[in-house]
Amino acid sequence: MKNKTIIDIRYYGVEDYHFDIPYIGDRYARKLREFDFKTGDYDHIYINFVDSLQEGHVEITPNLNDNWFIYVNIGVSVNKFNRLNPDEKFIFKIELTTEVLRALCERDGLDFEIVKKVKKMMLKYKTELEIVHKEKETAKYKVVISHQIRPLNKASISFVEYTDKITGVSMKKVLTKLKKYKDIYFLVSSISVTKDVVTLKPRISSTAEVHLRSYRTPIQIPIVDFFTNDEKISSEVMFR
User: Fold this and answer.
1) What is the mean pLDDT of each run of 10 residues along the chain (240 residues)?
2) What DSSP state is assigned to residue 217?
3) How far is residue 73's CA from residue 91's CA, in Å, rounded to a whole number?
């Protein structure tokens, strides 16, 4: 039964590989999640590089104890991988991850069309891939919160976009830099618009408190601020 939405893709067995292209699994998984990609009982996919396997051969490892994750072995030549330049490694890891997802889609009847869509976007936007975290839409407005994970190897960053559906005018702002990209999931749990102010409320839990120590919450943004010439909302709104 495909009842879980993917959370994470990680890589293992990479000790001998010059594995200097980070965050590909994070971006791939989070973009799949944006499109509501369903798996099975597992929502974490662990990809294990194996030099001794035939190049590109995929073996799905049965998981008899913990259903929330699954291991997939794939043949990757250490020598071939280490000879690649950074751009080639980036593309190679996206292609390799896609092949693992293809095997899981074939075995478990998952939606490979979503995978193909995300792969295309990964290759097009690379580190600047934008991932929608949360949105709210009514007859009058639409608010979208999105983020990028370490774009161009810089700090992760979040955005807020407001669309006035009456006038059709849409404006997008940088919301804040993120100390960790996962902070966005604790920073914005709900969206509301009251008296021309957009309010972004955080999650409430002990884990959220740890992630949000550096941020001021809830975040309140007057709608008029979206239509000024400033590209960034004041960091004073965001940080303690």
Assistant:
1) 85 90 95 93 93 93 78 94 94 96 94 97 96 96 96 95 92 92 95 94 92 91 78 46
2) S
3) 19
> 239: which residues sit within 8 A by CB, 6+ positions away?
176, 214, 215, 216
The phi, psi pair for 57, rounded to 5°, reads -70, 135
Q: What is the pLDDT of residues 216-237, one digit of tens each?
A: 999 999 998 887 655 544 443 4
> For 111-130, how does the pLDDT look when each residue is reduced to its tens digit (9 = 90+)?
999 999 999 999 999 999 99
CA distances from 147 to 1, 126, 195 (A): 30, 14, 26
Please choose, from the candidates 114, 122, 109, the residue with its C-alpha nearest in 3D space to the C-alpha of residue 148.
Answer: 122
| pTM score | 0.90
* Burial class for 62, CB neighbours closer than 10 Å (0-12, 13-18, 19+): exposed
Helical segments of the chain, H only? 24-34, 78-83, 86-108, 112-125, 183-187, 206-211
Q: CA 14 → CA 3, 73, 93, 136, 194, distances in Å?
A: 31, 12, 12, 40, 50
